[in-house]
From TrEMBL, chain A:
Source organism per UniProt: Hymenobacter jeongseonensis
Alphabetical UniProt keywords: Membrane, Transmembrane, Transmembrane helix
Protein name in the entry: DUF3341 domain-containing protein
Keyword Transferase assigned: no
InterPro entries, alphabetized: ActD (IPR021776)
Matches recorded under Pfam families: ActD
Segments crossing the lipid bilayer: 55-74, 94-116
């Protein structure tokens, strides 16, 4: 399916931030904003909800901790208890280091996999981008266009009024 | 919004624009390899060859190829292991701890420092694996069921804790580093001209487009990874120190070891970061990003951790005397005045006295002096591990078994070989990966840039930032430049 977008190109993050607020206030739905670095405050301006990743991180960590404790207690306490100088089989203080390491291991890798999955990041040979300068020095605001021909010129005016240095049209093919 | 202090030095000099940052950092990746890089790589590859030869001798003929004997059964291998792991710690400190403390100056050095961490841990891991004698059975350290039944690993052993600590540390550092690299790979991808470059960097960039939601999640993930890496980095060297501290060998059996080892690790790591950065900034013309201010700040951290290490040395001595344990006292007297007095003297001079020179402002801001200092600290920290390991072992409870250690040519070859391995990896990284985190430097640019003269005359033409288009309704968008060079 091919979709058309109006791309407002901005030179500065603060100009972009205000433009995002004004464009949304004008009742235009912003498809996405692409920037070379994280623009602080854009989440609120775009109405992006706070990420729930920290909650996921907590559960990954707890999974790691539970797994590590179960593994050590089961292996040394029940499956193959070894008598080492008459010391207790389930020696919890000695299990702390591995429990800690596995907590971190699960948190980190669980987080990374979740991040890649929900953001749709995976190795691919071709990456269609709106504007190649968005990873260099430009801030790109993409607005999806419908079929009306007058919409683009109206958007051009709106974006220009809010500090866009140029406004382009781009067709993107999405699956 | 960041707070800009009028007395702060700018973090990036030369009046860079966003595009300049992209140009400067990508230049190295896109340009043909220069002759200095090729020369350096050939030297590194030669030592990599030495490494492979030493590994071949060690694996084919066994550990007998090393200089170990019945009394000193841990020497250069574990010294090198601890040394390399310690070096790695600075990278995580810069990428995680300084991120949590919002030290923005870390932006220019974190990428290379994290790369250093990963390569140092790879070098470190070689030693315990080779010391196993049968490295092809290295997977036995993991709790796997074996062919005789379910005899698992012993989770009470610090050496096993080490396995978990080092493998967690390595994989976590790798993932943290890679997530940081993704936006920069996307930048290179979008500039790439050649088919191979376009394809490779597309694959490496994981389809990153820089959308607002992705950035928001990226920042959350970075913060959480930094949060878990901070205790992780402290735990890794703590566990390394427990390899020694949980034994009953005089000179090893001390409770001070964990903090003392962690401080020493950060100390030697910062020395290595300084060594690498001082070379990188000159070879790749990155003086505007890694400024004298950065060097001075790293010097300060080196001085603080070096002083902690110095206090630890003195405390150890005091406690040995205060404990009234004859063997403990002998271990320390023997360290300082026994046959290995020279190693002890080298350690004390390099680690306790040298970093104190950093109190002098001129030393802190001097490139040649810092370079020499960083090398001296690296040597000193190697001797520290050698002193702890060999002097504690070579005279044990039974005087008839006292012995001396002398390294074999294979010991030396393995050590130099891992240096070759490290520098091969680092040089390849420096050529094909962006050595500075572009995205992160761009975030600080607006608040710290100064408009001083650029070092590069060809840049002077477009050094001034493009004028902002007139906006109505928006507040004054031009950043106020607070810096004393104006």
């Amino acid at each position: 399916m091919t979709k058309r977008y109006a791309l407002g190109i901005f030179e500065d993050e603060d100009v972009l931030l205000h433009a995002v607020e004004n464009v949304r206030a004008a009742g235009v739905k912003i498809h996405d904003v692409f920037s070379p670095y994280p623009v602080h405050g854009i989440d609120d301006a775009l109405g992006i909800e706070r990420s729930r990743l920290p909650i996921a991180a907590f559960f990954f960590g707890m999974t790691g901790l539970a797994f590590a404790l179960w593994m050590q207690i089961y292996m040394l306490g029940f499956d193959w208890p070894m008598n080492i100088g008459g010391k207790p089989h389930i020696a919890l203080p000695a299990f702390i280091p591995v429990a800690f390491e596995l907590t971190v291991f699960f948190t980190c890798h669980g987080m990374a996999l979740t991040f890649f999955t929900i953001t749709g990041l995976y190795p691919r040979p071709k990456v269609p981008v709106m504007d190649v300068r968005a990873t260099d020095d430009k801030f790109v605001m993409a607005i999806e266009l419908d079929e009306t021909s007058s919409q683009f010129s109206r958007l051009t005016q709106l974006l220009r009024d809010n500090g866009a240095s140029e406004v382009n049209q781009k067709e993107m093919t999405t699956k | 919004m960041q707070h800009v202090s009028a007395v702060r030095e700018p973090l990036v000099t030369g009046g860079k624009t966003l595009h300049d940052v992209t140009q400067d950092i990508c230049y190295q990746v896109e340009a043909k390899p220069n002759i200095r890089w090729m020369a350096a790589l050939s030297v590194a590859l030669f030592f990599l060859g030495v490494f492979f030869y030493s590994v071949y001798r060690t694996v084919w003929y066994g550990i007998g190829e090393w200089g170990l004997n019945k009394t000193v059964n841990w020497a250069w291998d574990i010294t090198n292991f601890v040394w390399w792991v310690g070096i790695g710690h600075a990278g995580t400190l810069i990428s995680a701890v300084l991120l949590l403390f919002r030290q923005k100056w870390r932006s220019s050095i974190n990428r290379a420092a994290e790369a250093m961490t990963i390569f140092a841990v790879i070098c470190a891991a070689m030693f315990p694996v080779l010391h196993m004698g049968r490295p092809w059975l290295a997977f036995w350290v993991f709790p796997l069921q074996n062919t005789y039944g379910s005899l698992w690993a012993n989770f009470n052993s610090p050496l096993l804790w080490d396995v978990f600590a080092i493998s967690t540390y390595f994989t976590v550092s790798l993932v943290f580093w890679y997530i940081g690299l993704i936006p920069d790979f996307a930048t290179i991808r979008d500039r790439a001209k050649g088919t191979i470059a376009k394809f490779s960097y597309s694959m490496l960039s994981f389809g990153w487009k820089g959308s607002a939601k992705a950035w928001s999640r990226y920042e959350t993930v970075s913060l959480i990874l930094a949060g878990v890496s901070t205790p992780l980095v402290l735990s890794v060297h703590t566990i390394v120190s427990m390899d020694f501290a949980t034994s009953i060998v005089p000179g090893w059996h001390t409770t001070i070891f964990p903090p003392y080892f962690v401080a020493g690790a950060i100390f030697s790591g910062f020395a290595m970061v300084l060594t690498l950065m001082l070379i990188t900034r000159v070879v790749f013309r990155l003086e505007d990003y890694i400024t004298l201010e950065h060097i001075a700040l790293m010097n300060k951290i080196m001085m603080v951790t070096g002083s902690i290490v110095g206090v630890a040395y003195i405390t150890e001595f005091f406690i040995a005397w205060y404990s009234q344990v004859e063997f403990e006292q002998y271990a320390f007297i023997n360290r300082a005045t026994g046959p290995y007095w020279w190693a002890y003297a080298a350690m004390m001079t390099c680690n306790v006295i040298t970093p104190q020179l950093v109190w002098i402002r001129r030393v802190r801001y001097s490139i040649p002096l810092t370079f020499v200092l960083s090398i001296i600290v690296n040597i000193g920290m190697w001797f520290e591990r050698f002193v702890i390991i060999v002097t504690s072992l070579h005279r044990d409870y039974l005087p008839s078994s006292w012995a001396m250690f002398s390294p074999s040519i294979i010991d030396i070859g393995l050590y130099l070989g891992t240096l070759g391995l490290f520098f091969t990896l680092f040089l390849l990284f420096a050529k094909f990966f962006p050595v500075i985190n572009m995205a992160e430097v761009k975030t600080i640019l607006k608040y710290t840039v100064d408009n001083g003269p650029t070092y590069n005359p060809k840049k002077a033409a477009h050094a001034a930032p493009a004028p902002q288009p007139a906006i109505h309704g928006a507040p004054a968008s031009a950043p106020v430049n607070y810096n004393k060079h104006d």
